[in-house]
């Protein structure tokens, strides 16, 4: 075996100021399970600057898509980490796929579960925009986009228009349903619920919660964030307080959002209201939105 193989296959030894540190690939200690279009990428980027965190950059999709490849494959997808680091991976699909919770439980019933959620109405619109672009339907006319949205959103029930509950864009935001499934396997204490809307406005507050939950020093503070004036943009993060090295996210990519009619907002609001209420009662927290 040559040196290169040794590096790739197993571990690297680094002589650090604190002596010998061993970098290894380990199964995750914490998983960011969703929700889609709620700021998962921003949250992972922000927490990654913490020296006690080692995060997998791409979405692994092990528990939903690649489960058949086995746990060793999963481990091989993890980033190198020292014993002093928490290993995190994120795949937003995990929250809504009913197979995943039990599989994660079978891997490690003590794993920490991170969930970031935003208002399901804005989340749905974001996912709709993303889906349209994925299907190469690049509609720049915001009114035409809104008409498409409405065509997908409503179904005709004997002359009455009702919201199509099983459109994935809508269903993904019925958080109570998905979280209930996870709670069959994990106690509430295994979860942290991050407010995705507040992550944009007051990122340091949400990062404080997350660092506490992960039991790492709260070194990411208000001084790390550079607020932007972009309409839907996330704040940028300084790699160290006072540092000029800044990382920004380019999440929305300037895609136009449909011009949704106020009456449609009202319908969506009515639709989500009871689910939201049930959700915050379930997790025993004040409503985020
Ligand atoms: C964070 O890392 C430092 C040094 O790398 C270590 O001394 C400390 O115990 C770690 N903290 C946690 C909570 O793992
Ligand atoms: C349609 O709406 C009317 C008036 O709101 C209501 O009385 C009726 O029960 C609804 N029908 C169905 C099939 O939901
Ligand atoms: C949604 O519901 C309709 C009837 O209520 C059904 O025909 C359709 O297959 C469902 N679609 C999905 C994706 O579940």
UniProtKB/TrEMBL annotation:
The active site is at 37 (for sulfotransferase activity). Keywords: Disulfide bond, Glycoprotein, Signal, Transferase. GO terms for molecular function: [heparan sulfate]-glucosamine 3-sulfotransferase activity. It holds the Pfam family Sulfotransfer_1. The keyword Acetylation does not apply. Transmembrane segments: none annotated. Disulfide bonds join 236-248. 3'-phosphoadenylyl sulfate binds at residues 37-41, 118, 126, 253-257. Residues 1-19 form the signal peptide. SUPFAM superfamilies: P-loop containing nucleoside triphosphate hydrolases. Residues 28-272 form the Sulfotransferase domain. InterPro entries: NST/OST (IPR037359), P-loop_NTPase (IPR027417), Sulfotransferase_dom (IPR000863). This is Heparan sulfate glucosamine 3-O-sulfotransferase 6. It comes from Brachionus plicatilis (Marine rotifer).
């Amino acid at each position: 075996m040559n040196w290169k193989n040794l590096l790739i296959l197993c571990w690297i030894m680094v002589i650090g100021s604190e002596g010998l540190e061993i970098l290894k690939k380990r199964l995750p200690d914490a998983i960011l399970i969703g929700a889609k279009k709620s700021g998962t990428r921003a949250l992972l980027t922000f927490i990654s600057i913490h020296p006690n965190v080692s995060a997998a950059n791409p979405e692994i999709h092990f528990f939903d898509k690649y489960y058949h490849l086995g746990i060793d494959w999963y481990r091989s997808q993890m980033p190198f980490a020292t014993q002093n680091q928490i290993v995190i991976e994120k795949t937003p699909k995990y929250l809504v796929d009913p197979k995943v919770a039990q599989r994660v439980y079978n891997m490690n019933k003590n794993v920490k579960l991170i969930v970031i959620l935003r208002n399901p109405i804005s989340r749905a619109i974001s996912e709709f925009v993303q889906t349209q672009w994925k299907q190469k339907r690049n509609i720049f006319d915001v009114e035409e986009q809104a008409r498409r949205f409405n065509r997908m959103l409503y179904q005709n029930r004997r002359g009455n228009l009702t919201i199509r509950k099983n459109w994935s864009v809508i269903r993904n935001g019925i958080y109570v349903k998905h979280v209930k499934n996870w709670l069959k396997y994990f106690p509430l204490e295994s979860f942290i619920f991050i407010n995705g809307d507040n992550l944009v406005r007051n990122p340091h507050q949400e990062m404080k919660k997350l660092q506490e939950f992960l039991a790492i020093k709260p070194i990411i503070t208000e001084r790390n964030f550079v607020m932007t004036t972009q309409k839907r943009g996330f704040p940028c993060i300084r790699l160290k307080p006072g540092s000029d090295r800044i990382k920004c996210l380019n999440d929305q990519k300037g895609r136009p959002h449909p011009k949704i009619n106020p009456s449609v907002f009202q319908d969506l609001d009515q639709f989500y209201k009871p689910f939201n209420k049930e959700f915050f009662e379930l997790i025993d927290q004040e409503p985020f939105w």
